Automatic annotation (TrEMBL), chain A:
Pfam families: LSM. One of its GO terms (biological process) is mRNA splicing, via spliceosome. Its main location: nucleus. LSm subunits form a heteromer with a doughnut shape. GO terms for molecular function: RNA binding. One of its GO terms (cellular component) is U4/U6 x U5 tri-snRNP complex. This is LSM complex subunit LSM5. Belongs to the snRNP Sm proteins family. InterPro entries: LSm5 (IPR033871), LSM_dom_sf (IPR010920), Sm (IPR047575), Sm_dom_euk/arc (IPR001163). Plays a role in U6 snRNP assembly and function. Binds to the 3' end of U6 snRNA. Keywords: Acetylation, mRNA processing, mRNA splicing, Nucleus, Ribonucleoprotein, RNA-binding, Spliceosome. The keyword Ubl conjugation does not apply.
From TrEMBL, chain B:
Residues 11-94 form the Sm domain. It holds the Pfam family LSM. Keywords: mRNA processing, mRNA splicing, Nucleus, Ribonucleoprotein, RNA-binding, Spliceosome. This is LSM complex subunit LSM3.
From TrEMBL, chain C:
One of its GO terms (molecular function) is RNA binding. It comes from Dioszegia hungarica. This is U6 snRNA-associated Sm-like protein LSm6. Keywords: Cytoplasm, mRNA processing, mRNA splicing, Nucleus, Ribonucleoprotein, RNA-binding, rRNA processing, Spliceosome, tRNA processing. Gene3D superfamilies: 2.30.30.100. It holds the Pfam family LSM.
């Protein structure tokens, strides 16, 4: 039991580093995590938004961003600048 | 409304308060818009409007999946209650 | 930059928590993306705990173009997917006067 890590503890350890956020819809975000709250609303900086459409993947750079936790499906710690470049999709 | 908004706006709901008695334009989920006179609102954004005109923006799709040009269906309602969870945006009517 | 009128937020540390972030971006040009992919660009007048926001000089963007303009507008919080600060280079419809004010704030003017 001593090594139990709560989910939000894991997110807390990502503060200051780059994370990859997958939303419930066809959107994904990569950025540096600055902070979050109990709802896992997140503040990110140097954000890139990826949108998966029928025509391909669009990439939009965003400044400092507050992401609504409501639609977040999964969060990954990532060192790759772009998940798509690294996976070759 | 503009100068009031600039000076005395402490929270977003104040913008809605300033619109009481005025003609407003609201966007709802499901590609619907309503214009009408705003009579009442609450924290859920439930609204009561009068002389309301609802516009439904419809894109028909043919049997082979081709989207036809969008069309708008309108209807007028004398008195209207709008449930707050459908509200996306409220602005003074243009 | 004019030292007599420093811009307090120019060198403020980056906000950590979401509520700090929201407090720090009041008055700035922001983009609010709602779930359906429509964006509202405008000056953030104020906001509350539900993430309801009031925008001034708002523009509605869909499919890469402006589809409507509103002097003031209220956006209900639950529909928001994200709020981000618009940077100068990204803002296509930036008026000249706003650019000048902003560049002075940043110390480029």
């Amino acid at each position: 039991m001593a090594s139990t890590i709560l989910p939000l503890e894991l997110v807390d350890r990502c503060i200051g580093s780059s994370i990859w956020v997958l939303m419930k819809n066809e959107r994904e975000f990569v950025g540096t995590l600055m902070g979050f709250d109990d709802y896992v609303n997140m503040v990110l900086k140097d954000v890139k938004e990826y949108e998966v459409t029928a025509e391909g993947i669009t990439e939009t750079p965003l400044g400092q961003t507050l992401l609504n936790g409501n639609n977040i499906a999964m969060v990954r710690h990532t060192s790759a600048p772009s998940p798509y470049r690294s996976t070759g999709i | 409304m503009d100068q009031l908004a600039n000076s005395t706006l402490a929270e977003p709901l104040d913008l809605v308060k300033l619109a009481l008695g005025e003609r407003v334009f609201i966007k709802l989920r499901g590609e619907r818009t309503v214009t009408g006179i705003l009579h009442a609102y609450d924290a859920h954004m439930n609204l009561v409007m009068s002389q309301a005109e609802e516009s439904i923006h419809i894109v028909d799709v043919t049997d082979d999946g081709q989207a036809l040009p969008p069309r708008v269906e309108k209807r007028e309602v004398e008195m209207l209650f709008v449930r707050g969870d459908g509200v996306i945006m409220i602005a003074p009517a243009p | 930059m004019d030292s007599a009128s420093p811009e307090p937020q120019a060198n403020a540390p980056l906000a950590g928590s979401p509520s700090d972030f929201l407090k720090n971006i009041v008055g700035k040009k922001v983009k609010v993306r709602i779930g359906s992919g429509v964006d509202y660009h405008g000056q953030l007048t104020c906001l509350d705990g539900y993430m309801n926001v009031a925008l001034e000089d708002a523009e509605e963007w869909a499919n890469g173009r402006v589809t409507a303009r509103y002097g003031d507008c209220f956006v209900r919080g639950n529909n928001g997917e994200y709020v981000c600060v618009l940077e100068q280079g990204l803002r296509l419809a930036f008026s000249l006067s706003q650019s000048v004010i902003r560049s002075r704030r940043l110390g480029w003017g």
